[in-house]
Write a structure and sequence with these properties.
single chain; 83% helix; globular
C-alpha cells in the first residue's frame, strides 16, 4: 500500500521533529541550570507531572489518528473530517479542565505527589507549574492537529510548525531567563508563548480545504457521539495506560525526593540526555499509527503485519546508532549542564547503563505497542503496561532502592541506580508480552470503524 518514498516522507520529518523537541528540551534544562540545581530540580519534577497531561493529549491524538487513518484507508473522507473535529474539541476541553482543577490546588498537588522537598525546589516547582498549566489547552490543539497531519501521511507540516514553536521557545528563554533574569518563570512564560503560536499556526493550516482532513466551521460547536465514541474506544484505554504509567513514573520520582539535590539533578539530566537515543523508536511509533491504521481500514491485515515487522527493524537499527552515539558522548554532553562533579559523574554512569538497556529492550516496549494501537488493539496494551508498571517500575524500584539504602544508608547515588533497574525490568516484561501479541492474530481483528 505504501511506497518506500511515502514511508521516507512520513518517517524522516518525524525523526527530525523528535530530535528538535529533544534538543529544545535539553536547551531548556541548560538555560534553567543557570539559576542553580534547585531550578533544574524544580522544573524536572513539574515536567514529570506535566507529562501526565501531555500523555493524556497523546492518547486522544492516537485515538483520533487511528479512527481518521482507518476512515481514510476505507475511502470515507467525510467521516474522517468529522472525526478530526471531534478530536480537536476533545483536546481543548481536556486542557481547560486541567487548568480549572489544578490551578487552585497547585501547591497541594505538588506536596501530595512529591512529598517533602527542600523549600527552594518547591518554590521553583510551583512557579513553573502555573505557567505550564495555562499552556495545556494550546498544547492540546497542537498535538491533535499534528496527529491529523500524520494521519494524512504529511508529517512535514508538524515538523515546520515544531521548528517555529521550538525556536520561539529558545529565543524566549534567552530573553526572559538571561536578559530579564526571570529564572524559572521565564522558562514557563516562554513555553506558554511558543505553544500559543504553534496552536494558532496549526489551526490556520488545517482550516484550509486543500487537505483531506481539513476542519470546517472551527468555532461552531459540533458533537458527533458515534464518532466520539470510536475515538474514545482507542483513546480511553490509551489514556488510562499513559496516565497510569506517568502516575507511576511520578511516584517513582517521589521516591527520590529524599535522595538530595545531587541525585535529583543527575536523574533529571540523565533523562534529558538519554531520551535522545529514543528518537528513532518514538518517530517510527508515531508513523506506525498511520501505516497500520490505513492498512486495517483498507482490509489489508497481512500488509499491516508485514509493515509492522519492517517498522520494528527500522526502530532497532535507528536505536542502535543513536544509543552508540549517546553512550560515547555522555561525558562531554553532561558537562554542558553545569552540574557539580558528583552529579555529573553519576549522570554519566546512569546514561551509559540506560543506553545498553535502550538498544535491547526499548523498541519492543514502546514502538511495538503503537503498531498494535494502530489496529485498535488499545485495551491489551493498557493492561500489559499497567501491570508491568506497578509491579516492576513502581514496586520494584521502591523495594530495590530501599534495600540499597538499608544496606548502604549514606549512598543515595547507588539507591538511584535501584530506581533505574526497576525501570529496565519493566521494559523486559512488557516487551516480551507485546512481542507475543504481535506474533498472534488477535490484534488484527480490532478495527474501530
Amino acid at each position: 500500500m505504501f511506497s518506500r518514498k511515502f514511508l521516507s516522507r512520513l518517517i524522516w520529518p518525524l525523526v527530525m521533529e523528535q530530535f528538535l523537541a529533544m534538543t529544545v528540551g535539553a536547551c531548556d534544562t541548560i538555560m534553567v541550570s543557570s539559576v542553580g540545581e534547585a531550578g533544574v530540580s524544580g522544573v524536572s519534577l513539574v515536567d514529570q507531572l506535566g507529562q501526565l497531561v501531555i500523555q493524556l493529549f497523546a492518547a486522544f491524538a492516537t485515538g483520533g489518528a487511528v479512527v481518521a487513518s482507518q476512515y481514510l484507508g476505507h475511502r470515507e473522507q467525510k467521516n474522517a473530517q468529522t472525526a478530526a473535529k471531534q478530536l480537536l474539541n476533545l483536546c481543548v476541553a481536556a486542557g481547560v479542565v486541567c487548568i480549572a482543577v489544578c490551578l487552585p490546588l497547585r501547591r497541594s498537588i505538588l506536596n501530595l505527589i512529591f512529598g517533602a522537598m527542600e523549600s527552594e525546589i518547591m518554590e521553583n516547582a510551583v512557579t513553573y507549574f502555573v505557567w505550564l498549566l495555562f499552556s495545556f489547552p494550546l498544547l492540546g490543539i497542537y498535538n491533535s492537529c499534528a496527529a491529523l497531519c500524520r494521519a494524512m501521511g504529511n508529517s512535514k507540516i508538524s515538523l515546520k510548525v515544531s521548528l517555529v514553536m521550538n525556536f520561539t521557545n529558545i529565543a524566549g528563554n534567552a530573553v526572559l531567563i538571561y536578559g530579564a533574569k526571570l529564572g524559572v518563570a521565564g522558562a514557563g512564560i516562554s513555553t506558554l508563548v511558543s505553544r500559543a503560536i504553534a496552536a494558532a499556526v496549526m489551526l490556520y493550516i488545517l482550516t484550509r480545504k486543500k487537505w483531506p482532513l481539513f476542519i470546517e466551521n472551527l468555532w461552531k460547536p459540533q458533537i458527533n457521539f458515534p464518532l466520539l465514541g470510536k475515538i474514545l474506544k482507542v483513546a480511553v484505554p490509551s489514556g488510562i495506560e499513559n496516565s497510569v504509567f506517568h502516575i507511576g513514573k511520578t511516584l517513582v520520582y517521589s521516591f527520590m525526593s529524599g535522595f538530595g539535590i545531587t541525585a535529583i539533578a543527575a536523574n533529571a539530566i540523565s533523562n534529558t540526555v538519554a531520551s535522545f537515543s529514543n528518537i528513532p523508536g518514538t518517530a517510527i511509533g508515531l508513523a506506525s499509527v498511520t501505516i497500520v491504521g490505513q492498512c486495517i481500514g483498507a482490509g489489508q491485515k497481512q500488509q499491516a503485519k508485514s509493515y509492522g515487522r519492517k517498522l520494528m527493524f527500522l526502530a532497532y537499527s535507528g536505536m542502535f546508532l543513536t544509543g552508540l552515539l549517546v553512550f560515547g558522548l555522555a561525558p562531554s554532553v553532561t558537562k554542558i549542564f553545569k552540574l557539580t562533579p558528583e552529579a555529573q559523574s553519576l549522570a554519566v554512569l546512569i546514561i551509559r547503563s540506560c543506553m545498553i538497556a535502550n538498544v535491547i529492550f526499548w523498541p519492543m516496549s514502546f514502538t511495538m505497542p503503537n503498531i498494535l494501537r494502530g489496529a485498535g488493539d488499545a485495551k491489551y496494551t493498557m493492561l500489559v503496561t499497567n501491570i508491568s508498571m506497578w509491579v516492576f517500575r513502581v514496586a520494584g524500584s521502591y523495594l530495590i532502592s530501599r534495600w540499597i539504602l538499608l544496606k548502604y544508608p549514606q549512598d543515595t547515588s547507588l539507591a538511584l541506580f535501584g530506581i533505574w533497574l526497576g525501570m529496565y525490568l519493566d521494559w523486559v516484561f512488557r516487551g516480551l508480552l507485546f512481542y507475543i501479541r504481535f506474533c498472534g492474530k488477535k490484534w488484527l481483528e480490532k478495527s474501530v470503524i
